[in-house]
UniProtKB/TrEMBL annotation:
UniProt entry tagged with the keyword Transferase: yes
Keywords: Aminotransferase, Pyridoxal phosphate, Transferase
Gene3D superfamilies in alphabetical order: Aspartate Aminotransferase, domain 1, Type I PLP-dependent aspartate aminotransferase-like (Major domain)
Gene Ontology molecular function: any one: transaminase activity
Entry-linked Pfam families: DegT_DnrJ_EryC1
Source species, domain of life: Bacteria
Membership in a protein family: Belongs to the DegT/DnrJ/EryC1 family. L-glutamine:2-deoxy-scyllo-inosose/scyllo-inosose aminotransferase subfamily.
Name of the protein this chain belongs to: DegT/DnrJ/EryC1/StrS family aminotransferase
Entry keyword annotation includes Transferase: yes
Transmembrane domains' residue ranges: none
Species this chain originates from: Streptomyces roseoverticillatus
CC cofactor: pyridoxal 5'-phosphate
Amino acid sequence: MGTVEALTTAGIGAGDEVVVPSYATADAAEAVRRAGAVPVFADIDPDSLCLDPASVAATLTLRTAALMPVHLFGRRPDLDGLRAVAERRGLIVVEHEPPGTLDENSRRRQVNAAYLNARLRGVVTPATGPGVEHSYRTYVVRIPGNGRPDRDAFARALRARGVRCHIPVQTPVHRLPAYRRELWLAETERAADQCLALPVDAALTPRELHRVVAVCNALGGLVPEAA
């Protein structure tokens, strides 16, 4: 069942609000609109980059009908925490694009991610630990510093040295013209300024992985803008 169908089957439509993350693509917000409801944006957890239950709880109104967590970059949201928030208010939880079964490619990505996690210095690697599920569809690090110019300069330096990378979320959804809201979502803004996706594809060779590490570590995690 698709996300829109799941919402409409649950009776969600005109006049209802559905809480979604802003740090994601616009797909979840668009699904809410297609169901006739209104997307309301909440902040993210800084470790998972997925909806933060505490922020979600703070956004609830009498019109809130559902929560829509997004599985981002292969990482699962805190579904237990979100369901606890939903149950206190009698809301439903509709997961947007839950991850599929792990296959050989995702297992290889996990191996590659483990290699990067153990060796990268000067960047903040994805949070890991007991109970953390991550298929690493995208390998996202944070570039420490004073905001976007540092991350963007770091990305340009990587590309100049032959390492592929991209900004995983260019603009939070609540700042897109079609969904613009006057909000300040601190962790969302911080992630939008700091996050960078590095290559972790299943087809990467050991030599290519070593190059990613060598180039990143040589840059030291912070490349100041030229004066």
